[in-house]
TrEMBL record:
Gene3D superfamilies hit by this protein: 3.40.47.10
NCBIfam families: PRK07516.1 (NF005704)
Annotated organism of origin: Enterovirga aerilata
Thiolase N-terminal domain span: 4-225
GO molecular function: acetyl-CoA C-acyltransferase activity
Alphabetized PANTHER family for the sequence: ACETYL-COA C-ACETYLTRANSFERASE (PTHR42870), NON-SPECIFIC LIPID-TRANSFER PROTEIN-LIKE 2 (PTHR42870:SF1)
Thiolase C-terminal domain mapped to chain residues: 251-386
Organism classification: Bacteria, Pseudomonadati, Pseudomonadota, Alphaproteobacteria, Hyphomicrobiales
Top-level taxon in the UniProt lineage: Bacteria
The protein's name in its UniProt record: Acetyl-CoA acetyltransferase
Xref: InterPro entries: Thiolase (IPR002155), Thiolase-like (IPR016039), Thiolase_C_2 (IPR055140), Thiolase_N (IPR020616)
Amino acid sequence: MQPAIVGWAHTPFGKHDAETVESLVVRVTNEALDHAGIGPEDVDEVFLGHFNAGFSPQDFTASLVFQASDAFRFKPATRVENACATGSAAVHQALKTIEAKRARVVLVVGVEQMTRTPPAEIGKNLLRASYLAEDGDTPAGFAGVFGKIAASYFQRHGDQSDALALIAAKNHRNGVQNPYAQMRKDLGFEFCRAESDKNPFVAGPLKRTDCSLVSDGAAALVIADGETAESMRRAVAFRATAHAQDFLPMSKRDILKFEGCAEAWKRALAAGGIALDDLSFVETHDCFTIAELIEYEAMGLTPEGQGARAVKEGWTEKDGRLPVNPSGGLKAKGHPIGATGVSMHALSAMQLCGEAEGIQVPDAKLAGIFNMGGAAVANYVSILERVR
């Protein structure tokens, strides 16, 4: 059996003034171990996903996990960073360690605290996930980068404002029933479509409802090798994974194709011996609605330039052909950067174990996860299935 998720924890995402990076890490560490039915002495190695880039004054954070228990002392612990895909990068490092037989049980924690940072600094910090030599002076920061992508997509494939509003409305509707989501409000298509004082344009054709939320939060996973997982309460196995890293400068690639995303999906589906239509649902990286639109095309759901069809024809609805972001995605759930990829895996494991409550996709068997760092630079795909 492949390595498997055997326990998890997840804080609500949002504004947590009473918490710190340390307290969030300690909270999910203890809850994930309890959920797996193990103690810290059973963990062989720790990976912490924490982007930071100025959000937290504490910038050496791997050992914060040890604040949960003295029993962690002297275990290997490493902080992992790969922009907005930091969480999945930590997950994939854990898998490599297990596959190399250097560990049987690995704890993965993802965390970020963003809301204490002044708004001007937030944009500056996020822009560090781009190629500063080309994009460092982009108005509106990282949103401006995706605003340029959206404007270029509109120029090549026509105005997609309706499709973007449908994606935003879908994800907010899904997020209503997610107890971990930062924004649990059904905004509706009309609100998302229209410019207003509450929904102004932010960058290019992107309005506020096209942008993911600034968030605090943490999530954790306990991942075990196949033999160990067989004796655990539950086991959600990694049927396949793929990581495709692309060039950092957008000038070196056709940014409207998300080629790294397409390559990661291609590799993962081939390794898993499945087709996209075999998946029960997908959690994909909707940092901006234009990203989700292009990801439909990159994953193979629609041909290039026809991503709007998937949302306009209801394919990506919770009861559609391939539900996308039943959790509400980053759009409604929130996007505490280092925690996002870990959250995607935790929520997908909940789905496959039938423990997702209001966001449950009926009879979910196979989950697809796509987590992206930068503008389609770091591309991670995981395919999960319940085996116990």
